[in-house]
Amino acid sequence: MIALESLAEELRAKVRGKVLSHEPMARHTSFKIGGPADLLVIPEDVGDLRAALAFARSQQIPVRVLGGGSNTLVRDGGIRGMVLLLSAFQELSREGSEVTAGAGVRVSRLLAFSSRQGLGGLEILSGVPGTVGGAVWGNAGAWGGSTADHLVRVQLVTREGEERILAREVIPFRYRFSGFPEGAVITRATFALVPGNPTAIRKQISRWLVRRNATQPVEFRSAGSIFKNPPGDYAGRLVEGAGIRGIRIGGAMISEKHGNFFVNLGGARAADVLALVALAQERVRATAGVDLEPEIQVVGED
After folding, report:
1. How many CA atoms lie within 13 A of 170 on its CB side?
2. Domain 218-294 falls in which CATH fold?
3. Which residues are catalytic?
4. pTM
5. If DSSP codes are grouped into helix, strand and coil, which group holds residue 28?
6. Which regions in the chain score pLDDT beneath 70?
7. 267-290: buried (b, 16+ CB within 10 Å) or exposed (e) per residue?
């Protein structure tokens, strides 16, 4: 612990943003689950981010970007190394029909800004949790649409600290996958949107939100969809067909409203969620002959 505090003090001298040591990740994830990270860094801008990455390279410290903390399960032992939280990257701007958003902008805020500007196309993301950076990295989506659909370009910083701009065409997006260079950190993204009536756009957003709230357990802490939908089917349907909707292990439960959502009833541990994941995979394999692939990112140590 003494060595960790010394490392944190050295890093604080190099970045202007916040540096926390032994920070519980349950405070920073939508699941409200997770042990401590050795170092949590909140850089103020790209220069700060590059300084943090340079420090990590010099100390041979592994780095992980958290995003908005959704779609992530941090194990109970926490994360060794440095976690980057880009909550200060809050740019939102418009140029013609293009909107650029910083990586730390919440998807809900991007939608609100775009609708006020009379620019549509992203409504399908209504209710998607997390930040723009995380949505782009994981190609988040719903109801048949995805983040990549209207993406034009992405600005990032490589693991080596180089700033790069990638056009949408060179990014190998597919279902819930982006293929960015390993260790790269997304800093902003630009979307090409469609001019429309602001009121009509807001109404469409509201319709999608109503549908989401009616079918998903938004009243509980969760990480979003646990499994990827297998080709031609839905993970939630398969879990429900296996007869395990509503089953509970510790403080975690497979939602009674949607089989592909696991919820924290209060005091759940990562081990509880992972036990439910294993149970669901086993039961679905036995009843439907399908191997469910996790959509959530499981990080850290037991």
Report:
1. 9
2. 3.90.78
3. 176, 225, 295
4. 0.91
5. coil
6. 1-2
7. ebbbbbbbebbebbbebbeeebeb
